[in-house]
């Protein structure tokens, strides 16, 4: 019934198996990729015909995790998987970015790649497995695809690179990098690092590219046995006459437009040229369907030709020149920290809010649930590019750009123990003309320092571009939106003065060489240093005091056995502390306690209360106490937290006491000395010995002879 094909290789000390022919046989291509015991089903289907008049390639990649893969049942009321998680969205982008450039330009059929995690062994991340499986499915499908690609995760520990490190190794690694590419070149890089230098980062990329080659070979070997017949591509029509006519109508206008440095004015000029061309061709419906692609190609030729020829860039800058920068902090009076970072026509308003443990994000992942105390959210409203559009929807691009900035800043955060705050940054992109994600990195770094977050060092970021024509190429620093759109590479580098903290690269051509990447990294290093210098004009380090609007957090450590006493039966004690003092109290399983409030006095009272609960009485120590119960044989005094001790009638005063109430009554504030603590924890106290030590005397309220009180 099944005609199964399978290839297995040893990859990084674990078996990688690619299988086709058993599952999802009606898809154009289907591969079950298994690495260790992590299994991902990858399928690809393309429409047999493209919609007429379509001027783009409609590729969709969906990576989805099923909770049964980890032996779990989904939470929530409906008990089924819901909208994509952040991890699923980011992995979908991770797969999309290296495969998209490898489809031919004339292929415009609806194409969908779906990668479903079927099993997760908690050691091998499904993201790289899904990328490899998607590449194999595309290669087998017959759909036009100039692959295959491979992918690999690279770590760096003790001066050595690690291939596909397991979580325990990754926890101690100073690098987490995912790289994808073909046999000849690198196509995509995504990483976070702990201030590594350019040479180490470049070495990691090339190490990953080398280690993915056996995977590419395995896909090719599988395709030689199981690939379907390749699809026929539509013939390229001869548009030379139309191209010449459009050139006569538009070239001079487009060249003049790309000499305008201001974005909005330039776009208006380009739109006017395009409108004039379409008006001139209004009577030719067939020509109107083709003119968009011809104009786009002409724009690319003009911009790229000027740069390769050594002419100034669109806005007049040199290749390695960064746009003018203005950095401002403290721009919002009620925010805990804020910064407005403007670079040319790109601007980000970054706002930092500090919270407590209650504000941490609870993440339910296949690997298990955990709490995240650092969040960064990136918003790209339509007004930032002078357009109208949908508001309130978080797209894949916003999730991806936010995560890139998050990775760039994570390496310089203080430890949770030294700075026990939950940190949330929101970056509102208020203007955009290239590299708003790197503006977010710069603005967020300033915003956190403005809030008093003690970063190890400030972080800056820069986006690099590439124009490559044949053997000639030019690397561009701080690219504009048009240079990104018409160029061959978007290469983003973030880091401190000590090294790189994040690297992301996307290539629109078949790949780039080590030489180009090395030049881009070196040029980016100079750009980052320049941007850091401009940022330092606003703020060189974290403020020494938090905003008066931010909560204060104090921490203390108690014996784990005392946790139940602080919480109380049904939470009675901790609720009383919170309601009485007004401070928030968070208790961890290890006995660490965080007390937070905007009122320092509330924190002080709550800490003293907790200290009283958990403190152990010391023999011979004198305590302030309160009489809570009177008995014939003595008085019970609450002297430390909820702890009571007995003052026997003989220990109330230096003289004979006939009746306890002659000396004390309930509610009296007294001083007591600890005499003894027995094996059951019962405490004997003395007021008499305190009187001897301090020279104080209690008023003798016993009746005088004859029934009258002594005055």
TrEMBL record:
PROSITE patterns: KH_TYPE_1, S1
Enzyme Commission number: 2.7.7.8
UniProt domain S1 motif: residue ranges: 620-688
Pfam family of the protein (one): PNPase
Cofactor(s) required, per the database record: Mg(2+)
Keywords for the protein's UniProt record, in alphabetical order: Cytoplasm, Magnesium, Metal-binding, Nucleotidyltransferase, RNA-binding, Transferase
InterPro entries associated with the record: ExoRNase_PH_dom1 (IPR001247), ExoRNase_PH_dom2 (IPR015847), ExoRNase_PH_dom2_sf (IPR036345), KH_dom (IPR004087), KH_dom_type_1 (IPR004088), KH_dom_type_1_sf (IPR036612), NA-bd_OB-fold (IPR012340), PNPase (IPR012162)
Localization: Cytoplasm
Sequence intervals crossing the membrane: none
Enzyme's top EC category: transferase
Keyword DNA-binding (UniProt): no
Binding-site residues for Mg(2+), renumbered to this chain: 484, 490
Function of the protein: Involved in mRNA degradation. Catalyzes the phosphorolysis of single-stranded polyribonucleotides processively in the 3'- to 5'-direction.
Family, per entry: Belongs to the polyribonucleotide nucleotidyltransferase family.
Protein's name according to its UniProt entry: Polyribonucleotide nucleotidyltransferase
Organism: Iodidimonas muriae
Lineage of origin: Bacteria, Pseudomonadati, Pseudomonadota, Alphaproteobacteria, Iodidimonadales
Name of the gene encoding the protein in the UniProt record: pnp
């Amino acid at each position: 019934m099944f005609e199964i094909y399978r290839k297995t290789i040893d990859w990084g000390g674990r078996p990688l198996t690619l299988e086709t022919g058993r599952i999802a046989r009606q898809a154009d291509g289907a591969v079950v990729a298994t690495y260790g015991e992590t299994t991902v089903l990858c399928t690809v289907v393309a429409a047999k015909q493209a919609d007429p008049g379509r001027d783009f390639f409609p590729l969709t990649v969906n990576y989805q995790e099923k909770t049964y893969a980890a032996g779990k049942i989904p939470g929530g009321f409906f008990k089924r998987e819901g909208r994509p998680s952040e991890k699923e969205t980011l992995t979908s982008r991770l797969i999309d970015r290296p495969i998209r450039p490898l489809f031919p330009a004339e292929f415009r059929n609806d194409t969908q790649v779906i990668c479903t995690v079927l099993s997760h062994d908690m050691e091998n991340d499904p993201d790289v497995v899904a990328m490899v499986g998607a590449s194999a499915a595309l290669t087998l499908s017959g759909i036009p695809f100039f692959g295959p690609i491979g992918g690999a995760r690279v770590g760096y520990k003790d001066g050595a690179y690690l291939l596909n490190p397991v979580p325990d190794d990754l926890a101690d690694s100073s690098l987490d990098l995912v790289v994808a590419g073909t046999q000849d070149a690198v196509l995509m890089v995504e990483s976070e690092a702990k201030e590594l230098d350019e040479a180490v980062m470049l070495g990691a990329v090339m190490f990953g590219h080398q280690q993915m080659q056996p995977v590419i070979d395995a896909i090719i070997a599988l395709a030689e046995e199981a690939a379907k017949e390749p699809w026929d591509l539509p013939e390229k029509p001869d548009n030379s006459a139309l191209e010449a006519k459009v050139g006569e109508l538009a070239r001079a206008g487009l060249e003049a437009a790309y000499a305008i440095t201001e974005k909005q004015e330039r776009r208006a000029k380009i739109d006017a040229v395009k409108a004039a061309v379409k008006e001139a061709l209004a009577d030719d419906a067939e020509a109107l369907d083709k003119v968009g692609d011809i104009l786009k190609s002409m724009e690319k030729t003009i911009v790229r030709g000027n740069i390769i020829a050594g002419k100034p860039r669109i806005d007049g800058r040199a290749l390695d020149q960064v746009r003018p920068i203005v950095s401002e902090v403290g721009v919002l009076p009620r925010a805990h920290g804020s910064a407005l970072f403007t670079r040319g026509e790109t601007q980000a308003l970054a706002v930092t809010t500090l919270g407590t443990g209650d504000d941490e994000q609870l993440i339910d992942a296949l690997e298990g649930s955990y709490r995240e105390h650092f969040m960064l959210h990136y918003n790209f409203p339509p007004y930032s590019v002078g357009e109208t559009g949908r508001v309130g929807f978080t797209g894949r691009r916003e999730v991806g750009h936010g995560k890139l900035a998050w990775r760039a800043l994570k390496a310089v955060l203080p430890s949770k123990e030294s700075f026990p705050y939950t940190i949330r940054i929101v970056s509102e992109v208020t203007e955009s003309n290239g590299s708003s994600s790197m503006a977010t990195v710069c603005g967020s770094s300033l915003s956190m320092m403005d809030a008093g977050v003690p970063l190890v060092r400030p972080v800056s970021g820069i986006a690099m571009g590439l124009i490559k024509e044949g053997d000639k190429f030019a690397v561009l620093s701080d690219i504009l939106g048009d240079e990104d759109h018409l160029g061959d590479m978007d290469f983003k580098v973030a880091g401190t003065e000590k090294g790189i903290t994040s690297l992301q690269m996307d290539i629109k051509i078949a790949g780039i060489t080590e030489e180009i990447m090395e030049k881009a990294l070196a040029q980016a290093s100079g750009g980052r240093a320049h941007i850091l210098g401009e940022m330092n004009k606003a703020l060189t380090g974290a403020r020494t005091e938090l905003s008066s609007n931010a909560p204060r957090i104090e921490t203390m450590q108690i014996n784990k056995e005392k946790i139940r006493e602080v919480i109380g039966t049904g939470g009675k004690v901790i609720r009383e502390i919170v309601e009485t003092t007004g401070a928030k109290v968070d208790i961890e399983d290890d006995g660490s306690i965080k007390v937070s409030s905007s009122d320092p006095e509330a924190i002080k009272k709550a800490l003293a209360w907790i200290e009283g609960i958990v403190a152990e009485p010391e023999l011979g120590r004198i305590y302030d106490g309160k009489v809570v119960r009177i008995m014939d044989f003595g008085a019970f005094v609450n002297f430390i937290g909820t702890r009571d001790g007995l003052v026997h009638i003989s220990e109330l005063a230096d003289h004979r006491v006939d009746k306890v109430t002659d000396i004390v009554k309930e509610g009296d504030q007294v001083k007591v000395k600890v005499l003894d603590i027995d094996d059951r924890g019962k405490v004997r106290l003395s007021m008499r010995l305190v009187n001897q030590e301090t020279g104080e005397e209690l008023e003798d309220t016993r009746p005088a002879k004859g029934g009258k009180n002594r005055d």
